[in-house]
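Before a colleague's protein record goes any further, I have to sign it off. What it holds is a sequence and that sequence's fold in token form. My question to you is simply how this chain folds and whether the tokens agree. Thanks in advance; the entry in question is below:
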Amino acid sequence: MTRKISPYSSFHHRLGQFDRDTLVAVLSSREDISEAQANKIIDQIEDTRDTVLQRAKRIQQETQKRLNAIKEQAQKQAVETKKAVSGAAGYLTQLLFLWRLQL
């Protein structure tokens, strides 16, 4: 059985896959970028990545919270509907009984 991975988990995994040392080496291999500048660029990228991941997590949590509230409301409505149907069935049974008595 395959486990379904949430979009957030997949997103988090993909953003976390880059290798800092490789990126620093690639950037600093350019003549116009020093290793210190490359590290600064990577720091900015990591900060942005972390901010995006935090926002994505908050969105996922809020979405789950709303989904849970909708499920709870649907369950309450189902219970109320069941009560209403049960009450209507009882009322109809009484009417049928009274109607039969009149025959």
Summary: The chain has three helices and no strands. The CA atoms of residues 12 and 53 lie 7 Å apart. The mean pLDDT is 87. The longest helix spans residues 35-102.
